[in-house]
Specification:
Helix Hairpins; two-stranded antiparallel ribbon; 2% strand; mainly alpha; 2 strands; 3 helices
Amino acid sequence: MAISTANAEHGGSGSRPSNTGATHENFSRVISMHRRQKALEKKVKELEHDNESLHSDLEAAQGSVELMRGMVEKARREYLLQVQETIKMEILMGQTVGPLDLKVAELQAENSSLLERSQMVEELEAENSSLRQQNSQRVEMLKAAKEATAAAEKKLEEAVGKLSEAASSLATLTTQRDAAEASRRSLEAEKEDLMNVGADSLIDGFELALEQVRCVLPELDLAQFSIHHSVVDGKLKPPTP
């Protein structure tokens, strides 16, 4: 029983596992990944807002291009009709070529104006194409940001799972430690009880031996004997203070 008690004393309190450091590290990683996820979500929202703005600008530019194109085509048709009507009227009225040349010059000037408008339409189409390209780039950035957010969420879930496993392991180890501590205390109490019983038995045995000596040698002075004395070189030696 004394050997078991000593083992319990040396082994019971020595095996106290601790996983607090690893748990704190996992928790810090989870917090860091959560902040990164929030930053990515904010970036995604900004890109979505920019994408909507570009989409609105693109629609407005497309509407302007279509409107200008319709105006140019309408003007071309009207001027062609005017040219045809003018030629018919001048032929019927027998006018000279001079006025016709003047009218042709006017029509050419109008045609130049139409060409300028056509050039404006082309410029608007080029601007529209640039907006489409920017919109495409923003869409790609938005897609990449969403993929990064999804990856961060996956890592966050994995980290939370590991943290949960670590917390469960820590709870199990804590339970085992508490059980070992309770066992150690029980063994210490049992050891103390056994030591008290042994001491009482030793004292009772010594007193019984003195009674037997007193019975056999009643004239012997037993006051010099004590359970605390020891024998050194054939002589009684009291305990050292």
